[in-house]
Amino acid sequence: LPSHGGLSSTSHLDGDGATAPMETRPQPDAPVCSPPSHPPVVEDDLQFLLCEGCRQESPNLKLLTCLHTLCLGCLSENKPVGQCPVCCTAILQANGIPDMDNLLFTNLQARLRVYKQITSHGGPTCSRCRGEAALVWCCECEEFFCAKCFEDHQWWHKKKNHKVRKLEELRAESAHQFLEDTRKSYNLFCTSSSHPDQSRVCSIYCQRCEKALCCSCALLDNQHAPFCDIRSETQRRQEELSSMERELRRRRSGFEAAYVSLQGEAARLEEAQREMRELIRQRVEQLVRLIRQEEEELLGLVEARQEQGRRELARELRHVEGVLRRMEAGERLVEKMNLYATEQEVMDMQPFIKGSLQELQQLQLPVAVDRGQPGDLSECRARLQAL
């Protein structure tokens, strides 16, 4: 690190962000931190991290089968219980609280809080000594260090390649860049009962039992086959989601056209009803008080004829609108998975998201029905002719 950052020049970062455990000493006359280059605000393109109900940050975000994300508070207050408040899709769990956590959004919120600390006025303090102003941030340990604690960190992890970034460099980045640059690959640990301490890192994926294994388990148990690299499997899952998302985009245009058609149909239905009401009023006004009762009967007849059509249209509109919202949520979630998801998050969330996308792909477009004529009004016209 350069001397103006609070550490002597004998400590350095290599091009990949790795550090060398060299002798360091604090410079007493050096400034502890530089002022933030911009206010610590959440960028507009990161609003997707908020709950889609209350639009607030929450540590308890749940992912519904319709691929909308809501916090526990909104789900607990949801009325009626058992359906998504955004698109009205049914929630499978009886208590109205889905089992699937949105790990991607929760982890991104945690990293965004780190970014807010970095860009806050005065900057963060050292995570170890709690007294000195922090000069660097270790992406692996996820901790801030002052000059002295950074020296101890380098000595303790001298055989590990920890990525350390200077705070002044991180302040110059946007929140979006910070989330992208700090994405790291978390190790998957083998869950076999023979080594429950989770000391063995998984690098192999068994396609038969569909789980990650360490090398020892893969070699000793001949029931596991065929194998592939765990990174290849996460890449395959990401590509599978991307392919489904492209197909979803293609199908979405059909649902959008159907939605516009239904809206136009509803407008024509309302216009036809309005015209008939106006015709009834004009004829009845000519007969003044003697046929007021007939006027009310005719109006009631028209309303009765239209009620069923309105209910059907409203139901179809709500269904198509809900499907469109689910598709938007699916596209948005897959896009953010591609940008920000770690391997652990892909392994945990991909099967769930895949199932929801497959359900969307199986949905059929609503059958087009011509409702241009608002019911059978022949009886109404005959009674008008009689008057």
UniProtKB/TrEMBL annotation:
Residue stretches making up the RING-type domain: 51-87
Skewed-composition ranges (Polar residues): 1-12
Molecular function in Gene Ontology: zinc ion binding
Alphabetically ordered keywords of this record: Coiled coil, Metal-binding, Zinc, Zinc-finger
Presence of the UniProt keyword Metal-binding in the record: yes
Record InterPro entries: PML-like_CC, TRIM45/56/19-like, Znf_B-box, Znf_RING, Znf_RING/FYVE/PHD, Znf_RING_CS
One Pfam family matching this protein: PML_CC
GO biological process: innate immune response; intrinsic apoptotic signaling pathway in response to DNA damage; suppression of viral release by host
Signal sequence region: none
Domain B box-type: 126-167, 185-224
Residues covered by region (Disordered): 1-37
Database matches in SMART domains: BBOX (SM00336), RING (SM00184)
Gene3D superfamilies: Zinc/RING finger domain, C3HC4 (zinc finger)
Coiled coil: 259-304
Cellular compartments per GO CC: nucleoplasm
Highest taxon listed in the record's lineage: Eukaryota
Record protein name field: PML protein
